[in-house]
């Protein structure tokens, strides 16, 4: 009887474990756009043929609208010198921009970048994305914060793990079809996170983009910036101080999980 129970348990758990195998992906470049190499990219999103970008650094932070075919900046709003711009998300016809240590989220009219309101929050702001129902925010830890799209109040947190271990330094975020993509600060990998379990289900190797980026020698010229075009099913990837934005798709990697 014990053998029967063990056999039954194995038959139930083995398919689940097989489905949970970590996926490895590479990047296929479809096009390359120009990008301001002075833009310290902290947040990137795509909407209706345009890229919207949040840039950081005190005295240089901004909100930008760019042509997604050329990378040309069409609209630019500088932030106050005491604000360090961070993650960016779109909720309806509004853009929400985080600040790093100022505890302020700036809410704009997407059409003209007019500031509509300022919302306060506790802790640091790093990345931000909107999944159609709620906002997800990173603060550089292994926790993602789930926030109300209107009040920005904190609902709860989700612990992020890779192979069962906490994964910290989560930075720029992109909410895509129920999953969350994240840059890891000072890392060449992008990860795809299950928004229910918090487990990393895929790793995308972006080392080829870093090599082709023609970035400066600045140690902070790191991979950061993920935007998704649902119509074409393509991603736009860039980094801080990079002179290029890459339009890409994922493809299967020869690398095996171990």
TrEMBL record:
Say yes or no: keyword Lipid metabolism present: no
Hey, what's the signal peptide range on this chain? Answer: 1-20
Write the record's keywords in alphabetical order, separated by commas.
Signal
Xref: InterPro entries: QCT (IPR007788), Quino_amine_DH_bsu (IPR011044)
**Any Pfam family hit:** Glu_cyclase_2
GO MF, any single term: glutaminyl-peptide cyclotransferase activity
Q: What is this protein called?
A: Glutaminyl-peptide cyclotransferase
